[in-house]
Amino acid sequence: ISPKKMKKTKDKYERNFTIRTKTGNQIEASSTTPIHIQLFDDQEQSSEDIRLKYHDHDKHNFEPGAIDEFQVTSHQPLSNKLTGIRIKHNADKYQGWYCEWIEVIDEDNQQTYCYSVQRWIDKAENDKKTDVYFNNLSNVPCNSLSNTMISITQESYDTESHTSQRSSIPYQSTYHVETKTGKKGFLSLSPTGTNADVYIQIIDHDGSKSEPMQLKKSIDHKNQFERGQTDEFDTGSIKQLNGIKQLEIWTNEKGLGHGWYADYIIVTDNKTNEEACFLIDAFLNKKNGGVIGNHLILNKETNNISCREKYQEKEDDIDTIQTRQMKAIRPVTDSSSMILYKRTYNVNTKTGHKGSLDTNADVHLRIHDKTGHISEPISLRRSTKHSNPFEKGNLDSFDIGTTESLESIAKIELYHDGTSLDREWNMEYINILDNLTGHTYCFSSDKLIHNSEHIILDVPCEEINKEQMKSKIIDTKDKQKRSFSVRTKTGSHVEAGSTTPIYLRLFDDQFQKSEKIRLKQKDKDGHHFQSGSIDEFHITSDKPFNKLTAIEVSHTADKYQGWYGEWISITDNDTNEIYCFPLQRWLDKGELDGKTDVYLKYIPTTIPCEQ
């Protein structure tokens, strides 16, 4: 058969097609893996493998729910009638793609073919195939096919395993949910977001309660529940409810941080358009409620002020406070300033496990500089990390200032008044960052500070850490396992994310190196490094490490399956020493120098990775 409109040039036949693909709506459905298509006709002929990408890009990110369109050309002889397609990739587990459908438009013959895919193409899913042939032509246009990943089903909540289970029962009540993540701390920069799963239950006017409903797939943002962010969700219940009276909310506490700080939640009943406002203005954590085993139950606001109006009043107050704080971090130049701080500091304290301290107690410090000048007593009152500071094991952070003109810090005077209870406080160390010079001063104590007792701290952390390390290295002769917390920051552009396994190797000043350690959560087989996200991992090594001097970051994936890392921060859990390794590059065979493993030396700095 001689194909119509087929151009014969240098023994090759050029055919033009438009390929349209639909990715599943779940966030896990997306992929940066190179996807290839092959076309088959009724004469048992086939095209070459054709990469699905835009002509001016080296890679393509198949986003959740996206319909992508590609212009492709085949140089193999094909008849006028296509009979099938073949989809494949060569990526590893959990790096595949969930495809709803693929539409092929023959531009030379004006024929359209719709193939219903509706499956995973992944080594870890279903039949684990990454090379699949399809000949099941749909009798309806692709745009009319239903989305199999978000059909009218409910994800029920298993109260024993605290996981979601799929159910085929359709929704009887549907809701639109709006959440507002708050801002806290100095200049509103303290972490308030969460990577945890958030669940709600609606209680109606008759006292009936919905099943737990997870708030997932934010309409507005890929990364939901970020600091200062408004997210919207569509969800539903299999129960027929009578309005909205109360809301029960909690998280599973997974991910980073000390809980989610929520300003408010607004739930709209899609049937009646009733809008229920629930003010929170607090962290959801074990102390305040809002976690597994201690759910937070909220009553609907009944006054005429809406959640958004109430929040705007709070934002106006925050703007005023921030204006004062911005003045506080610069030397005063005129008498009209509201705060007359001449030097400002960020203070971090670590409370030990010996003794205890009433959380209402007032803790004060005085800074002594090297010229003999002393600051006024400065209260450590509002921790940016905990609503109740100085609890056992807590790491607290405070932003303070002094009206004195001080030079570099020589020592710290510390005391508390033991308000309401006469107990001692065990302070392990205090770390002070001078905002003007960027210099950090760390003083160790590990003493019990009794009521109204003033102690002077003048021994740097480094000297105590040396003694601690000597004893720890001796201990590792019998028990060598070392523990580290690793935090990574992925680049913010969408291509930066990756599901590729990333490995870390540690090096110390005794010429020891660890095995290659996979960065993943212990209870999961893989990890998705999402664009813009900060991920935390807990790793161990059997080597008796001393001070770290370098790291090696690597993976073994093919072109355009790599990762763009901004930085890697490592905390030695035995010494509390923090190492920051700026990365700021691609690890990808198809980018820049093509490297997929890099060696990074540690350069001491007082600036945390986050800054």
TrEMBL record:
InterPro entries: Inner_ear_hair_cell_LOXHD, PLAT/LH2_dom, PLAT/LH2_dom_sf. It holds the Pfam family PLAT. Transmembrane segments: none annotated. Residues 15-135, 173-298, 343-463, 482-601 form the PLAT domain. It comes from the Eukaryota. Gene3D superfamilies: Catalase core domain, PLAT/LH2 domain. PANTHER family: LIPOXYGENASE HOMOLOGY DOMAIN-CONTAINING PROTEIN 1 (PTHR45901:SF3), PROTEIN CBG12474 (PTHR45901). This is PLAT domain-containing protein. It comes from Adineta steineri.
